[in-house]
């Protein structure tokens, strides 16, 4: 199958940078017109500097939300990406603040939410999007450190940020968790990553039931192959050829662009999805999954 984006073999140093992607990813379609769905809302997006998180931030801003994004502390490439998002939002007339954090540590999640509420005065939308992956095709060689780091980044951070945010959320506010199709498919070379993605789905379902009486909705998005820096920084670092024609084996014979996921986040963040909670959207190029 031929990937319609003609993605060449490549690699990056972890965690990866949007600026180094070849070809460049699209984060919001040129003809996307916001309709003020999120005016008056404040959104916090972890990992909002690049990839899917960046697309969510740009679409939220286009819909009138003020946005707070995080990037990995001490990462120069992520800092550059985060500043790009801030500049873009401000050029559109919006408000964006950036926060360097390491959300593997609970206190950083607590401090992050405290700073966001102090800076913006409130919090309405929490997008738990920060994540990582490291391919490994033999469980016997999967280091304990990698297993723990993947869980700390993908699952523990979600718990820390959400727990800190809950006292500031009220009826009508929302939580959106970025999971993955791999939480359903379970590829053999990503046991630790896939396990965390399954945990995120269960976290979403259980928390949605817990928060029903408070009127806070909790949903997830489980993307298929999407062109983000995580691919050349993980798959590509393992083997640059793994990135070539990335997503070409999907039913649509291509990977998705981050811009194709942004509207899903807007839908779940807005009142358009007022009767939806505990669910997962599947923008994955036609892959059939259960759940």
TrEMBL record:
Residues 1-20 are annotated as: Disordered. It comes from the Bacteria. Gene3D superfamilies: NAD(P)-binding Rossmann-like Domain. It holds the Pfam family adh_short_C2. One of its GO terms (molecular function) is oxidoreductase activity, acting on CH-OH group of donors. Keywords: Oxidoreductase. Belongs to the short-chain dehydrogenases/reductases (SDR) family. This is NAD(P)-dependent dehydrogenase, short-chain alcohol dehydrogenase family.
């Amino acid at each position: 199958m031929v990937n319609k984006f003609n993605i060449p073999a490549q690699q990056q140093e972890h965690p990866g940078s949007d600026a180094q992607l070849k070809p460049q990813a699209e984060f919001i379609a040129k003809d996307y017109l916001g309709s003020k769905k999120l005016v008056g809302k404040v959104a916090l997006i972890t990992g909002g500097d690049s990839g899917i998180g960046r697309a969510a931030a740009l679409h939220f801003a286009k819909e009138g939300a003020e946005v707070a994004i995080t990037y990995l502390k001490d990462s120069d490439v992520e800092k550059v990406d985060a500043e790009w998002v801030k500049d873009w939002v401000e050029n559109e007339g919006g408000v964006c603040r950036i926060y360097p954090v390491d959300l593997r540590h609970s206190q950083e999640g607590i401090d992050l939410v405290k700073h966001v509420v102090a800076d913006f005065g409130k919090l309405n939308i929490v997008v738990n999007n920060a994540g990582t992956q490291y391919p490994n095709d033999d469980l016997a060689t999967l280091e304990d450190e990698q297993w723990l780091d993947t869980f700390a980044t993908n699952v523990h951070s979600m718990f820390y940020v959400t727990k800190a945010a809950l006292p500031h959320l009220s009826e009508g506010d929302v939580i959106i968790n970025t999971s993955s199709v791999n939480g359903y498919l379970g590829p053999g070379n990503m046991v630790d990553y896939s396990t965390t993605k399954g945990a995120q789905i269960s976290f979403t379902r259980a928390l949605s039931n817990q928060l029903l009486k408070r009127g806070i909705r909790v949903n997830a998005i489980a993307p298929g192959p999407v062109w983000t820096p995580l691919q050349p920084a993980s798959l590509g670092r393992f083997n640059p050829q793994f990135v070539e024609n990335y997503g070409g084996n999907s039913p649509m014979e291509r990977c998705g662009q981050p811009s194709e996921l942004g509207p899903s986040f807007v839908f779940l963040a807005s009142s358009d999805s007022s009767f939806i909670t505990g669910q997962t959207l599947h923008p994955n190029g036609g892959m059939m999954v259960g759940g």
